Amino acid sequence: MRPTVPALPRNGLVLELFTEKPLFLLATLLELARTVSSAEAPMLGFNARDAAAERALETRFDATLDPADYRALLGTMAAAPNQVGSPHNKANAELALRLFRSWGWDARIETFPVLYPTPREVMLEMVAPTSMTATLSERNLREGDEADMLKGALPAYNVYGADGDVTADLVYVNYGREEDYQELAREGISVQGRIALARYGSIYRGLKPKLAAEHGAVACIIYSDPRDDGYWRGDVYPTSDNRPADGIQRGSVLDLTQYPGDPLTPGVGSSREAKPLAIRDAMTLVKIPVLPISYHDASPLLAALGGAVAPAAWRGALPFTYHIGPGPAKVHMKVTSDWRPKDIYDVIAIIRGTEQPEQWIIRGNHRDGWVVGAKDPLSANVALMQEAKAIGKLAKSGWRPKRTLIYASWDGEEAGLLGSTEWAETHADDLKRHAVLYVNSDTNEHGFLGGGGTQSLQRLVNEVAGDVKDPDTGSTVGARAQAKVDVDNYRARIPTPPEPTEPSVSLEALGATSDFTPFFDHLGIASLDLGFGGSGINGLYHSSYDTFANYERFGDPGFRYGVALSEVVGRVILRTANASVLPFAFGDFANAIGRYVEEIHKLENGLHTRVDQLARLLDAEAFRLAADPALTDTPPPREDRVPHIELAPLDSAVTMLKRSAASYDQALAANPTLSPAVRSRVNALVGDAERLLLNPGGLPTRPWYQHLIYAPGLSSGYAAKTLPGVREAIEQRHWADANRYAALTSAALMAYAQRLDQAAAELRRP
Amino acid sequence: MRPTVPALPRNGLVLELFTEKPLFLLATLLELARTVSSAEAPMLGFNARDAAAERALETRFDATLDPADYRALLGTMAAAPNQVGSPHNKANAELALRLFRSWGWDARIETFPVLYPTPREVMLEMVAPTSMTATLSERNLREGDEADMLKGALPAYNVYGADGDVTADLVYVNYGREEDYQELAREGISVQGRIALARYGSIYRGLKPKLAAEHGAVACIIYSDPRDDGYWRGDVYPTSDNRPADGIQRGSVLDLTQYPGDPLTPGVGSSREAKPLAIRDAMTLVKIPVLPISYHDASPLLAALGGAVAPAAWRGALPFTYHIGPGPAKVHMKVTSDWRPKDIYDVIAIIRGTEQPEQWIIRGNHRDGWVVGAKDPLSANVALMQEAKAIGKLAKSGWRPKRTLIYASWDGEEAGLLGSTEWAETHADDLKRHAVLYVNSDTNEHGFLGGGGTQSLQRLVNEVAGDVKDPDTGSTVGARAQAKVDVDNYRARIPTPPEPTEPSVSLEALGATSDFTPFFDHLGIASLDLGFGGSGINGLYHSSYDTFANYERFGDPGFRYGVALSEVVGRVILRTANASVLPFAFGDFANAIGRYVEEIHKLENGLHTRVDQLARLLDAEAFRLAADPALTDTPPPREDRVPHIELAPLDSAVTMLKRSAASYDQALAANPTLSPAVRSRVNALVGDAERLLLNPGGLPTRPWYQHLIYAPGLSSGYAAKTLPGVREAIEQRHWADANRYAALTSAALMAYAQRLDQAAAELRRP
Hints:
- Two copies of one chain form a homodimer.
- With 766 residues, chain A is of the alpha/beta class.
- Chain A folds into three domains: 345 residues, Zn peptidases (Aminopeptidase, 3-Layer(aba) Sandwich), CATH 3.40.630; 221 residues, Glucose Oxidase, domain 1, CATH 3.50.30.30; 177 residues, Transcription Elongation Factor S-II, Chain A.
- Chain A is 40% helix and 15% strand.
- Chain A contains 25 helices and 18 strands.
- In chain A, strand 17 and strand 18 form a beta hairpin.
- Chain A is globular.
- Chain A starts with 12 loop residues before the first helix and ends with a helix.
C-alpha cells in the first residue's frame, strides 16, 4: 500500500559527509568508491575468494530471470479483483503455494481469522443548497475486457470506517492534519457536528477521520484533488497514469500509529483460539463513517461551500475559489458494512541453511490488492516469486545457503498489514531468536532504485546497487540513484561536496508504509524496503485502473525493472545468506543517529525561540494589528515556556557509538581469518544487535511500537519519526516523557555500542 | 502602474539587527522606540521647541483632510477613461490646474509631445487544430452606467508593441523569463518562428516580448492566469476584486530597463524643438507584435497545446494539464497602431520656501489610467491633491515652508513614466542643483503602509509612521506595518530577535515601478515611494473593472486610507520642508549597503560552488543518468570557472561608511545649536549627498541609469537590483565589468562617507 510520492532532493549521506568534516572513515569509503562495480570490488562479509564465488552464483541467479515469466505471472495473478475474501485472492495464494513447492521450497499456507469489514451499502448525496447524488464509481476503463474483469470488485470504501447514517453541513479541512485544525481555529471554524471533507495526501489517510472525529466531526469524506495526483500533475488516464475524474483511492483508515494488524488482537497472533477484543475496545478503529470519493463527485460539494476563502496552501486544482464552509453545502451519507471475520492466507516458503540455519533471512511482499492491484502489490510480488524460482533452481543444482531463507507472500496488507503482523506476532519468540534480516518490497515500476531501512545495511545496499545494471541507461542502478539525487540537488540549488562520493541508494528512515513494520518496529529485526520508481505520481493508486494492461503500458513496459528488482533483492538475500560475517556496517548507522540527535537539539532550541517569539507578539497585540479586520483571525494561544531537557546522554551515546562503529567496521574491513567458532560468535553478536534498540515498554502511549530509533509519526502516520520517544514528546510538550525517553534511548545506544565493541574484539582475536 | 504583489515576510531591519549584533547605534534606536508616538518623541532635524510647533502644524494639516472630499474628487476624475490622448485626461489636467490655483499654489501645465501609439486594429484567432476567435473584450461590468461610462476606452492592448500580422504555432513560455527559455532549451523546444504565449507575473511585462523576440518568436501573447490574480487567489469580480474570466491586464511593453520616457528622446526632454530618434533606432521599442488577453480567451489556446507537460512551476489554475507545445495550436494575430505623436500634460504646482528656497521638495503621482484608473492611479492622485489643499490652507493662514514645495500630477506614466521622465530630463540641471527629496505615490487602498526608498530616509519614515493613526486598528500605521512583518515572520517560522524593535516601515530597494525612477535612478535625488495596501492581489489591475464603484467597494470603503496616505506623506513633506537640518539619518543606509555587499560575496561564492558542482555532474554524466529516457532532458552547457573579483574595496567602503554615518547621526542627535550659516552648510552638504552615488557614465549597457546602488534589474524589470553594476556583471559573467563597477561603487561610497564626515564636522563646530 506504499503511496508513491514525488521524488524530492535529499541530503542523505552526501551532505552529512560534507557538513560534518568526515573522519578517517571517509577515506575508506572513497577507497571503496573508486573500485565499486568492478569484479574485484570488496564485498562486505566476504573474503576475496568467497566474493568471486558469490558473484559467480549471482550470475547464475540472474540467468534464470526472464521478463516473459514476470509478464505471464502478473497476467495470471492480476486477472481479477484479489482483495481479502475474494475467490481470486485465495486462488493466488494456492498458486503461490504450488509454485514455491514446484521450485523446491518447503511451503505452506498459514491462515488467520481477522476482523475485516466489507461494505454492504455506501451512499452519498448533497441535500443543500442543491441536490446531487455521488456516483461513487469508476466507469471509464478503456478495455471492455477489463471492465468485465472487475466483476467481483467491492464498492470503493475505506476499510474500518464506522457504520453510520448522518446528514450535516460540510467543512473543507484541507489534508485534515492537526495543523489544518489549528488554521480552522484561527478562522473561528469548527467541525463539531459537521462532516469533514478532506483531500488525500500529506499524511496517512487513516489519521484524517481519526482527527476529524477527535474534533467532533460526525463523518469524513476523503477525495482525490487533481492538484495532488490528477490533471495538475500530468496527463490523466487513458493518456497517462494520472488520476482521471472518476478515479477513487480506496484504502484503510485503521489507526496504524497505535498498532497494525487485526484490530481485535493487538500484540498476539489471531487464531480461532485467541480471545479477541470487543470491537468497541479496539483503539485502532475510527468512530465515524468515512468514504473515499473522486473529484468528479467532490467538485460540486466543494464548489457549493461558502464561508472564508481557503488559505493558499489549501487550494487544489479545481477551477473555482476554494472555500472552507461550514455549509451551505449539506451532505447525507450512509455506510454499513459486513463486520464478520474473514480469513487471510499467508504463503510461507523455506529453504534451510547449512552452516548457520539458526539465522533466518525473511523476504516478504504482500499479495492482496484493492481491486486488481496489478502494480500494488503484484508487480513486486511477482519479482519476489521470480527470485524464489531462481533460488530454487540454484538449490536444485546443489547449492545451499549458509543461513535459512524464508519467503513470504502476505495477505491483508492493504487493510493494515494484517498478514505480516499476525504472522510476526504468532512467531514472535522464534523471530526474535533467529531473524537477522527482513527484506520487503511492495510496488515496483521503471525508474530509480529507492529504499528505506536500518542504516547498518547502507553499505550492503550500496555494494549491491553498484553491481546491478540499470535497464534504461546501462549504468548501475546505484550510480543512477546517486545521479538523480545529485541532479535534483543541483536543480534545487543545494550545494554538494566537492569530493567524489560513493554512489548510494540513501536509505530513508522507515515509517509504517508496508509489511516491514511488525518485523522492524515491533520485533527489532534489521529491515530493508526496496523498489524502483520515483518517475512520477501514481495516480491510479488503489483504483480500479490499477490493471495489468495499465501496468504494462505505464508501469514497467518490457518488465525490465521487475527483473532489476529481483537482481537487487536477490543479491541482498544471497549475500546475507552466504556471507562469512553478516554484511552489516555500522558507521552509516552511527552517523545517522548523530544526525537525528542534532535534529532533536534543533527542535528543542527552535521551540524555545518560538515560544518566546509568540509571547512577545501576544504582548504587543501584533496578531490583532496584523489582521485584516474583515476576516476572523484568532491569535494562537500563549504557550508554556520550555523547561530544560536532558539531552546530554544522547550526545555521549553518539560519541561512543561512532567510535565503536568505526572500530568494528575497520576490524571487519581488515578481512581477518576467523575460526568457525569466532565467526559464529561474531554473527550471533551482530545478528540480533538491532534488538538492543527495542524498549520492552514501547513508546509513549503506544506499547506495540518498541523501536527507540524509528516509528511512524503519530501525526503523519506513514512517515517516519526518528528517536520518536524523545522527538514526539518534545513536539507534544510532554517534558517528563522527553527526559525519560532521552535516557532510555541513550541507554539502548550505549548497549548497542558495547555490543559492537564485543564483536570487534572477537574479530581482532589473534 | 505599480503592480500589487502578495505580501511576503521580510527580513528588513529587524533581522539585520538580530544577526549583525548591532553596535552602539542599537541603544539609541531602542531609546527612541520607547518614546515614539508620544508628543515628546524626538523629531529628526528639529529641536524640542520646533518639534512641538511642527506637530501643532500637522494637526492643523490633518484637520483639513475630509474623506468626503476624496470621494467627490475621485468620482469626478474617475468618471471616464483617462488614458493619454483622451478628452477626460486633458479635462482632469485642467481640473488639477484650477484646483491647485484655487488653493493658492503657483501652478501651470507643462506639455510634452511624445511617441504614444494607440491601437487601430487588434485581432486574434486560433486556426488549428480547431477554430476560435478571441473576444479581446471585457463584458461583465455590473453597473449599466459604468458600461456606458467606458465609451471612449481603447481596445485592450500593450502600448509600444510592434505592428504585425502573423500566423504561427504557439509555444507556452510560462512567465517568459530567461530561466524559462533555459527550461525550454533543456526540453529541446524553441520559439523560433513561433508565437510565445506567456502568462502575466513574476517580471515586468515588457521583458516578456523582448525576450521572446530575442529568442526568435514572431509575436507574443500575454494572458492572466487565474492562478496569479484570478479565482485561485480568491473570489472574483463582482463578489470580490480578483480578476474575472474576461478581465484583461493592459500595460506598457516599453523596455524600461534601458530608459523610461519617450522612446525617441532618451536623456533629454521632448519638445517641438528636440530632434527625436527614428522609431527603428529606439532601443526601448519591442520588435514584435504583442497582445494582452484574458484567460477566457487563453484557455482554449492552452488546452489545445500538445508536446511535453509543462514543469510543475509553470502550471496555472486552469482545469487541464498544461503542455508546452509547440502546436498543434496555431494562431493568427494582427495588431496595427496609430504611431503619430500625442501630447501629455504634467500639472506642476509650487509654493516657494522662505529660508532655504533653493532646496526643493518634489511630490508626485501620476494621473493617467489605462481605462478609468480609479485605483491606479487616481486613488493616490486624489490623496496628493488633498495634501495640496491642506498645505494651501496652511499657507493662506500665513504659514510658509522653509524650503520650496513642488507638487506634480504626472501624465503618461502607464506607457513608461513619460510625464515624470520628460519633465525631469527637461529640468535636469535645476533639479540636480536644488532637489533634496522626491516623494512618490501611485496606488492606494486599505491595509498596511509600505514603501521603498533610499534608506537615509528610514528614520524619517519611521517617525512619521509612529505619529499617524491606523484607521482600522486605532494603533499607529508604523506599529501595524511592523506587526504585519513580525506576524508573517512568525507564521513563516522565521525567528526574530528577542529585543523589542522600533516599529518600522522597512524601506525596500526601489526598482522602476513608478515616477520616482527619473528622479532617483537618473538624477540621484533621494526618493521615497509610499502607499497603503498589501491585503491582497489586485485582480482588477489595468482592466476596465478598475472603476470608482469598485474602488469604493473593495479598495478603500470610507476613504479612510486615502486620508491616512495624505497624513503620512504630508508629514514627510512638511517635516522635510520645515526641519532645521534635513531629516536624514545615515546609519540605516550604511547598514543596508553592508547587507548588499554581503549578498554580493554570497553571490560570488555561490557561483564558484555551482560552476564546480555542474562540472562534476557533467563529468559523471549525471544528467543522462538522472533523466527519464522517455523525455527530452538536455544537460546544461558547461560553464567557465569564476575568476577572482576584487571586492575588497567594497568591504573597506562599508566599514568607512558605517563609521561616518554613526558619527553624523550622533552629532545630529546631540541636537546642537547651529548658526544659520552652519545650518545652511550642513543642509547643503547632506541635501545632495545622494548625487555622489551617481556614475556619470551610467551602468553597463545602460547609460541612462546612473545610480550605483539601485536600478531596476535587467532580467526582472520592475524589481530592484542593488549594487547593480557589480551584481548584474557577476550574474552575467562579465568579469571585467564586475571589477570596474566594484571600484566605481567603492569610490562613490567613500566620497559619500567623506561628505558625511564634512557635515558631521560642521555639526560639531563649537
